[in-house]
Amino acid sequence: MYTSAGADWPPAEFSFRRESWSPVPAPSSNVPSESLPELVDVTVVGGGPVGLYGLYSAGLHGLSARLFERLPVLGGQLEALYPEKVIFDVAGYPAIAAHDLVDALARQGLQFGADLKLGTEVVGFDAGPDGIIAVKTAQGSYPTRSVVLAAGIGRFEPRHLGVPEVDNLEGRGVHYFVGPLRPFYDRDVLIVGGGNSAADWALNLAGKARSLTLIHRRDAFQCHKDSATKLHEGPFTLMMNRILVGVREERGHVAAARLRAVTTGSEEWLSVQEIIVAIGLIPNLGPLYKSELTLAGSEVVVDPAGRTNVPWIYAAGDIVSYPAKIKLIATGFGEVATAIYDISRHLMPRPAH
Ligand SMILES: Cc1cc2nc3c(=O)[nH]c(=O)nc-3n(C[C@H](O)[C@H](O)[C@H](O)COP(=O)(O)OP(=O)(O)OC[C@H]3O[C@@H](n4cnc5c(N)ncnc54)[C@H](O)[C@@H]3O)c2cc1C
Fold it and tell me: Global pTM?
């Protein structure tokens, strides 16, 4: 099972990816150097889509940049949680697999030669009297003029069902992360959840799985309207007001799921071999919780320019909180472009005309 402790990558269930494709490799800047790290204009914390687009924006404005990513691969949630899922709502791409979007973002973001530190978790910041911020990691401190936090939801922790006999079969028919889609081909698949992730998995597996059943504890889906419409039109069995309360295993793998109707309490068995539980993720910013940033729950409060309460520390993407924030790749791109622009105009004031 993929735990949140340390940079344990790839988790056992993702080992397929070594054969099927190559993650963006660590460039030579990860090799420890004798000399002190260079001062950069912007340090980006997090190598998800927003952090990568932040690198591009920094380069565009002529700012030198460094990026820290706690995992040994780039891509954030896209690479860790849904590399093969098709994304439909990024401007300019009617449909693109998550891994391919990461690949494109990495090529776009790294073209200006940012200093990339993979497998390096940022644990805090020290603001010096000279206006230089020291970015602290277990491997040492790195000087910067500004920081953009693009750390998303931090460590990826799925919300577990808390039904021991289900959770015990994780990796043996119960999936909290979906890596490659092939293991679901020609299988009877149960998807638990009613949000966008659950709907996306159903739509991505349509025509590939032998049968697809969705259960949701409420009486209506909470996903995008278009997805809900497609679910109602597609080859799915939709069971509302149902929860998963048990599983039967055969030869160490899921063979059937026990479903309970929340309204009547009646139970039934459904023959399935694979169960995807998509009931959300628990944000965990780890050491960043201890910093002096103003938080709203597990998110960092920002103003319209992406500024946090700490001078020269900005934030963008899933990590931020402001009225009407929605957690999407597209919104994160706009937020990080705004933050980098604000940094650039303060670091490099335009000459008066
Ligand atoms: C199953 C699923 C399907 C989705 N589908 C879509 C979709 O179709 N369209 C869409 O727009 N959105 C989708 N989303 C949401 C989308 O993935 C997020 O909005 C997006 O990933 C946010 O990007 P980010 O860069 O802000 O954060 P993340 O992708 O979370 O990346 C943050 C990165 O920061 C790193 N990090 C965290 N803490 C530290 C630290 N202290 N030091 C160094 N590195 C750190 C993390 O390891 C991570 O790599 C989906 C989400 C899920 C779970």
Answer: 0.86
